[in-house]
Amino acid sequence: MQLTDQHRNYWRKNLRITAFLLSIWFIVTFVMAYFARELATINFFGWPFSFYMAAQGSLIVYVLIIGFYAIYMRKLDIEHGVDEGEEA
User: What pTM was estimated for this model as a whole?
Assistant: First the structure.
């Protein structure tokens, strides 16, 4: 199957947003854990910031990543004419 410019553009945008969101995931998951001792000096709602991120903050970020990806991909699918339409 030959890819058209529209298909290439769609996949380029898809890969770009996926790489961006995966970099956020990496930072929240690994970089925050690596700097946990330094982040513990910052108080956030009365708790050390590193504890808050481990307990709740990272989970909130993960849900926001999923929500943003779903909304963005829905918009991208409609823009490129590959949406599945309304579900019954």
Answer: 0.81
